[in-house]
Specification:
- The protein is mainly α and 267 residues long.
- It contains eleven helices and no strands.
- The longest helix is centred in the last third of the chain and has 55 residues.
- The protein starts with a helix and ends with a helix.
């Protein structure tokens, strides 16, 4: 489970409810079916008008990504794995990695490994892998754009809901009590539009972008690692090359771990 998303949604709801109580407004006012119809159904309608159905169908899967923690390879472990593969390749040749490729779970890395073992030209391997990365980025961008657009539509629909509510309120000018309730209900739609737009949809889009960036960074490490192995680069040089993807404060720890592992192997 992606704890930050769950905590964020819960805190957002709590902030609104508690804020209303502190302002002496009844949270029960939020249970307005007309406001939910205009904001939620209206936003869904706007998304359907803005995107092909083939893309909108991916929304349930996107919610799964948002609320579940995807296990990506750890950068430090991945670099260590490439150093190990480089040692094997330099000692026994690329063909010695053939059995290893079948055990790789990540399809992108497995495909790249098979290409270098089969003797693909380095430029060809790089082009194929980079094109795949580009395609992944495009898909991720389209997915995040759905939530970005929803975040833009929802607040505007909130204004629409307020206008509809005020139209109803103007029909109750002779009844002061009914007039007050109608005006209150009118602004619930605005509240829901702003809340869903800026607490849910825009942040969801940002989280998808962050997750995409993390995945793409891992893929770039894989590309550089594979091409370095193919070029016969030494494990130490591969480590130095791939350490650029590791924050400075973690590099010293990783180098120390590498030295300890090397000493253990030699000892």
């Amino acid at each position: 489970m992606e704890k930050s998303t769950v905590i964020g949604v819960v805190l957002g709801i709590v902030a609104v409810v508690v804020g209303m109580i502190l302002k002496h407004a009844s949270p029960a006012a939020l249970l307005n079916s007309a406001a939910f119809m205009i904001i939620i159904v209206g936003t869904i309608a706007a998304i359907l008008n803005a995107f092909p159905l083939s893309e909108v169908k991916r929304v349930p899967a996107l919610f799964k990504i948002l609320f579940t923690e995807r296990k990506l390879p750890e950068k430090r472990e991945l670099i260590g794995q490439f150093m190990n593969w480089a040692s094997i390749a330099r000692r026994e040749g690329l063909l010695a990695l053939e059995n290893t490729s079948d055990e790789i779970e990540d399809p992108f890395l497995r495909n790249g490994m098979k290409m270098i073992i089969d003797g693909g030209e380095p430029d060809f391997v790089r082009d194929v892998l980079n094109e795949e990365i580009h395609a992944i980025e495009e898909r991720h961008h389209a997915n995040a754009l759905i939530f970005t657009q929803a975040g833009s539509y929802a607040p505007t629909l909130g204004v629409l809901g307020a206008v509809v509510g005020l139209i109803a309120a103007l029909g109750n000018l002779s009844d002061i009590d009914a007039l007050g309730l109608s005006i209150s209900a009118a602004f619930v739609a605005t509240l829901l539009g702003i809340f869903t737009g800026y607490v849910l949809w825009h942040p969801f889009a940002n989280k998808l972008k962050r997750k995409s960036k993390q995945e793409i960074e891992i893929k770039k490490i894989m590309v550089e690692g594979l091409l370095s192995i193919q070029a016969g680069v030494s494990p130490a040089a591969i480590e130095q090359k791939l350490l650029v993807y590791i924050p400075f404060h973690e590099r010293a720890d990783m180098k120390e771990e590498t030295k300890e592992e090397g000493a253990a192997v030699n000892g």
